[in-house]
Amino acid sequence: MSDFIKNLTAKKVLDLKKEIPINSHLVVSKTLVQQPHVGMTLFSLDKDESISAHKATGDALVYLLSGHARITLDGEDFNVSEGESLLMPAGAPHALYAETAFQMLLVVVK
């Protein structure tokens, strides 16, 4: 068992999309790391679900595992698709909207 990354099986090849299901009409999260200087969380959002505007205390990197999201960052919209990432600087207001159902890995470094 890993001492730092939780809720995943060590010493096994993983498909992160299988680790975070897309549930109808829901936003789902699965925390992998929550330490003072780093956080890693898997998220899934069904189509038309959203995460309202907020700010992170560290730099946040979103990596889309599947689907398509519209991320509003500092008032500017970014279209992010499977295999793409967006870096959101600490303190910048941002919100996410599921153009299609999507899954993502969020890494926050403080």
Automatic annotation (TrEMBL):
Domain Cupin type-2: 42-108
Pfam families cross-referenced by the UniProt entry: Cupin_2 (PF07883)
Domain of life: Bacteria
Entry-linked InterPro entries: Cupin_2, RmlC-like_jellyroll, RmlC_Cupin_sf
Name the UniProt record assigns to this protein: Cupin domain-containing protein
Record lineage: Bacteria, Bacillati, Bacillota, Bacilli, Bacillales
